[in-house]
Amino acid sequence: MLPGWGRNGRFVRAGTMGVSRILGTRTAWTTVGDGEFFCPGCGGDRNYQRLTGRRRFTCLGVPVMPRGETGPVVECAACGHHYSADVLDHPTTTRFSAMLRDAVHTVALAVLAAGGTCARTSLETAAGAVRSAGFDDCTEDQLAALVEALAADTGRIFGEPCGPGLSIELHEALDPLAPHLAPAGREAILLQGARIALADGPYTPAEREALTTVGAALTICADDVTRLLTAARTPS
Asked: Are 213 and 229 in contact (CB under 8 A)?
């Protein structure tokens, strides 16, 4: 192209205009999967396509030379943005709600089983926490029956320290959830368990051990677990 004056009034040298129109790259995308994910751009659950691509140099818009592969990427069906594949590690809103509900339910059962007596005040506090987490129909009697069934199934005696089986259940429920909770959210779950334990009196050694296991599964450091359990005993 000959030199001359551009539209913005600046002098343009030869060869600096139109090159991008002649040479470029193009990516041909191939869909290799789909599903639902939490889109960080939209801020909610959306459908997605998982894509891999092959890049090529183009001349006058015509692909002429391979330039290698790219991806995989995740494309939101709503906003069209591309994200790295690790965005799929974040649970959808629906999945996160289910994980949180199951976590609160498991913690409530563990603390009740550790308490030994399943006093009515503890059952009422536990049922309220579980209902707030999403089990709308949960009742005190249902929780009491589940605790009894748990003890019968494991041969465990009420009030015993948190055994390997119960510890595994707590970790299975809490380990996948912890990375997706803010510190305040992790502390809230532990404090819910503490309030259940304190509903019928001071912590028993077994309740404290169960709550310590809860704190560890939620990646709360030991000092913060002690601080939170102490603070829960102080009337607000």
From this structure: no
Residues with Cβ < 8 Å from 87, sequence gap 6 or more? Answer: 37, 38, 39, 40, 74
According to DSSP, residue 118 is labeled -
Give the closest residue to 126 by CA, choosing from 225, 183, 207, 57. Answer: 207
Per-residue pLDDT of 147-188, as tens digits, reads 888 777 655 544 555 556 678 889 999 999 999 999 999 999
Closest listed residue to residue 68, CA positions, set 33, 25, 32: 25
Token pair of 115 as six digits: 């308490």
Contact 179, 225 (CB under 8 A): no
27-31, 87-91, 99-103: least confidently modelled range: 27-31
Distances (CA, A) of 189 to 8, 14, 31, 50, 153: 61, 67, 40, 34, 26
- The better pLDDT of the pair 18, 199 is held by 199
How many angstroms separate the CA atoms of 38 and 56, rounded? 31
* Rounded Cα gap, residues 198 and 17, in angstroms: 75
Stated pTM of the model: 0.76
Q: Is 117 helix (H, G, I), strand (E, B) or coil?
A: coil
DSSP string covering 58-90? EETTEEEEEEEEEEEEEEETTT--EEEGGGGGS
Helical spans, DSSP H, in the chain: 19-22, 93-115, 120-133, 140-154, 164-174, 183-198, 205-217, 222-232
Write down the residue that tokens 């809230």 correspond to: 188
CB under 8 Å to 47, separation ≥6 — which residues? 34, 35, 36, 76, 77, 78
